[in-house]
Write a structure and sequence with these properties.
90 residues; mainly alpha; 4 helices; disordered N terminus
Length: 90
């Protein structure tokens, strides 16, 4: 079909590792590329960021921003927070 763009699979990144771990911990079985993966992963990641920022006076990023991290660069500070959260859950 000419003229219809083919969706390419995006390269999985560190944020996908965190999203998949959180998704699995919540008893879900969604994988990268499946419908609702980014929405579910971003929601769970944002919940962890909200917990981290609670009581600091700082605001966590909006859900839309967290979703964008799946397609662009996720900031190092977010990777550090999520790494710490996952290590402490083990």
């Amino acid at each position: 079909m000419e003229g219809i763009p083919i969706m390419t699979r995006r390269k999985l990144t560190k944020i996908d590792e965190f999203a998949q771990a959180l998704i699995n911990q919540n008893g879900c079985s969604i994988s990268p590329g499946e419908y609702e993966y980014v929405s579910t992963g971003a929601t769970l990641i944002r919940q962890h960021l909200e917990n981290f920022f609670q009581g600091t006076g700082a605001q966590p990023p909006e859900l839309k921003t967290v979703k964008n991290w799946f397609y662009g660069n996720c900031p190092d500070w977010a990777i550090a927070i999520l790494s710490r959260a996952l290590i402490s859950r083990k």
